[in-house]
Specification:
This protein is an alpha+beta fold. The chain contains four helices and five strands. It has a domain at 19-74: Multidrug-efflux Transporter Regulator, Chain: A, Domain 2. The strands form two sheets. The chain has a three-stranded antiparallel sheet. It has a two-stranded antiparallel sheet with strand order 1-2. It is flat, with a radius of gyration of 20 Å. The model is unreliable at 1-7 (pLDDT under 50).
Length: 88
Amino acid sequence: MNRPSEESGIRVREGQEVCMVMKLFKVAKAAEDLTIKPSTVRSWILSRKISSIRVGRSVRIPENEIQRVLREGLRPAREPLEKRRKNE
């Protein structure tokens, strides 16, 4: 019997396990995407500001963590100075 998964909409047969595929990035690639230094990414990993996964001796950062950091770091743009002065 097939049953839909509530979260993903994937149909899973009774008794079967679902394996999620997650895209992982090296520290250097994550740093490049975040436009910061690799040492900053490593520092964030050590201070647990960003999640990571150990694969043997290597460290990888999940794509959703990079997206989270980008999303949380986004600040709305300010109004131009001219408009702010008119409102005062």
